[in-house]
Amino acid sequence: MSAALLRRGLELLEPPGRAKAPPGLQRGRAGPRAAGAARRRKRAPEPGRNKATVKGRVVKSAIEEYHKKKPVNHLRENLQYMLKGRLVADKAVTEQVLAQNRGRKAKDQPPEKTEKKKPEGTVFTEEDFRKFEREYFGIP
């Protein structure tokens, strides 16, 4: 830590009514050089005032800033906007747009739809099965 930072920290911790330093502890420098150095030396900032701020600036509340930047759900307004226009695009056009925006790799392609085969009805009746059982297994 530098000496200046240490000094500033001690100044912040010292009670407000106390002077900067007792007169007996101050070191006096003699000579023309000492006077010039004292003029050039910066005055220590007072703890109550911050010179880095802009004049007239209002300190903002952190809670107000949080509420300003809090995410807002726009779902309801977006749904109303989307449902307001009843123009529906042609299915071929939408498929073409989706195909253009899809990747060309096999992993990006949708799985091909296979038509489900309907179960075919049997040509044999229950009577035919009983007749087959009798003939094959010899059951009366």
What is the number of helical segments per DSSP (H or I, 4+ residues)? 6
Any idea what the shape is? elongated
Query: What is the CA-CA span between the terminal residues?
Result: 110 Å
Mean pLDDT: 78
- Structural class computed from helices and strand pairing: mainly alpha
Spans where pLDDT lies below 50 across 5 or more residues: none
Helix fraction by DSSP (H/I, runs of at least 4): 40-55%
> Any idea what the radius of gyration is?
45 Å
| Main beta sheet strand tally, sense and closure | none
Helix-strand topology string: HHHHHH
Q: What fraction of the residues are assigned to beta strands by DSSP?
A: under 5%
Total number of strands = 0
